[in-house]
Amino acid sequence: MIEMTERAAQHVRDFLDNRGKGEGIRVGIRTAGCSGLAYVLEFVDTPDENDTRYESLGVNIFIDPKSLVYLDGLLMDYEKEGLNEGFKFTNPNQKGECGCGESFTV
Q: Residue ranges of the Core domain (predicted)?
């Protein structure tokens, strides 16, 4: 299961409304950074038939099959701290992260 906090869901809903289109958001992983994996987010206009779809607080979340094993149980939040803002991921599969927080290991 993949879930969002109300702040994260509202941010995605607002962005999709401003775009004027979109079915939801795709969350995936890619090889990157010094720890090995990084989160990737993209808006989905047409879901891929192989994606797993979750719904959290009115937002469709799509996960590709290769990423699902690393993301099961993920909680997404959206935080603002001073001039910085962005998604924060709480992943029960994560074993560690790099010092800058840009990548993680499972």
A: 2-102
Q: In the chain, where are the structural domains located?
A: 3-99
Q: What is the CATH number of domain 3-99?
A: 2.60.300.12
The backbone torsions φ and ψ at residue 2, rounded to the nearest 5 degrees and listed phi first, read -120, 130
Length, in residues, of the chain:
106
pTM of the model: 0.83
List pLDDT tens digits, range 27-76. Answer: 998 877 565 788 899 999 999 999 999 999 999 999 999 999 889 999 99
Phi-psi region of 27 (alpha: psi -120 to 50; beta: other; left: phi over 0): beta
How far apart are alpha carbons 32 and 103 in whole angstroms? 7
